[in-house]
Amino acid sequence: MTQLMTRLKTAAAKRAAYRRTVDEISRMPLDVALDLGLFREDARKIAYRAVYGR
Which long-range contacts (CB under 8 A, 24 or more apart) does 46-54 make? Predict the structure, then answer.
């Protein structure tokens, strides 16, 4: 049961980090995003790779 709770907490923390990253990239000013070589439309893909590493 302890392993299950640990896995659920880890999954919830990763999901929160994913949502936070998507939100930050999506709200980033266009000039800053372009300076960093990011496209706000790719926020979900970038966040997924950053959090889950795939």
Answer: 46/21, 47/18, 47/19, 47/21, 47/22, 48/18, 50/21, 51/14, 51/17, 51/18, 51/21, 52/14, 52/18
| Confidence (pTM) | 0.86
Is 47 in contact with 25 (CB distance < 8 Å)? yes
Number of helical H runs and strand E runs in the chain: 3, 0
The per-residue pLDDT of the chain, averaged, comes to 95
